[in-house]
Amino acid sequence: MSLHTPTTEAEACAVVAEARAARRPLQLRGGGTRAGLGRPSNATDVLCSAGLTGITLYEPSELVIGARAGTPVRVIEETLAARGQMLPVEPADHRRLYGTAGEPTAGGLVATGASGPRRFAAGAIRDQLIGVRFVNGAGEAIKSGGRVMKNVTGLDLVKLQCGAHGTLGFLTEVVFKVVPRPETALTLALHGLDDARAVAALTLAIGTPFEITGAAHLPGGGPGDAVTLLRLEGFQASVDDRASRLAALLGAFGAAERRDAASAAPLWEGLRDGVALDARPDAAVWRLSVAPTKGPAVAARLAGVAERHAFDWGGGLLWLAVDPAGDAGAAAVRAAVAEAGGHATLVRAPEAVRAAADVFEPPAPALRAVTAAIKASCDPERVLNPGRMYGGV
Q1: Could you tell me which CATH number the domain at 2-180 has?
Q2: Residue 1 in contact with residue 46, Cβ under 8 Å?
Q3: Tens digit of each residue's pLDDT (9 = 90 or more) over 138-187
Q4: Domain 184-273 belongs in CATH node 3.90.1210.10
């Protein structure tokens, strides 16, 4: 296996152009923290962004920050924190989920669209991404988007690159919009609710004007272990007032326990990083997206398949831990989300399972044709992460 670690965009272009001429596919890599996500690659050469690091733009007054793709997300967050700012979403760190080392990178964050618990309130990473530079499958450097939030020039390749898992281009630079960091955070915890009651409480809370930024439910391992979480952020006086009024509104669901930012942080970090399930290390992990009100019914339908489950995004995101044997519950999971009108991703499973089962939601024929056409336009020789998301694409 050959490892290519360019330090400039021009060097990356040369690597891709050479691979294209030789009809040699490339496996794209950032920090390597999500190597277990997606279908297994048969590429023998690796193109890594580790040499492309550094903040390229930071305008605190304009609320934008840009960084080369190999820049650790930690560096971006530390840079923003020093000026009282942050990325709007909570970038997921999947090292505990996959048991990997390295550090999550800016490019990997964009390529995988790894949004955390704040996603339902702040939008996905694709909503915060305003500009990218990348190398396409022809070895050409492409710039899309801009460095200001009101830029609308050209085709929206920015959104296409987000969540494409490197199949449409090797990212070299990304630009995000940012927001002020809240002064404080407080979490209200309700105990002992079943799934249906918990989602009812979350739905009620999200529908209030109290600006909820986290809404999750962890059923726990036994009766009485369940905890339902609602997070409020902002100025101290505002948070205290909103928390009091919200707790009163939710009185029918039980007494709300107050948890400060420090004591609640491990719970939100666990949800962010996909480990709140407390699944056994060899369990397969699914991530289902459904309408929040349908979440409890989907969980009930899959009770015979799932060993553990948890809800985030007000019930709209359902995490499942299942036995990795056979298809890791793929047939049952796909049937359940199809009936609910949702979609599912096999986030963690043995390589053999990921090679045989669909990892990402299988697209309808028309959508698959569009997906293949976009891949062909960006990477005609299928050099970049071929088959990472779908076989033959």
Answers
A1: 3.30.465.10
A2: yes
A3: 999 999 987 655 555 555 789 999 999 999 999 999 999 999 999 999 99
A4: no
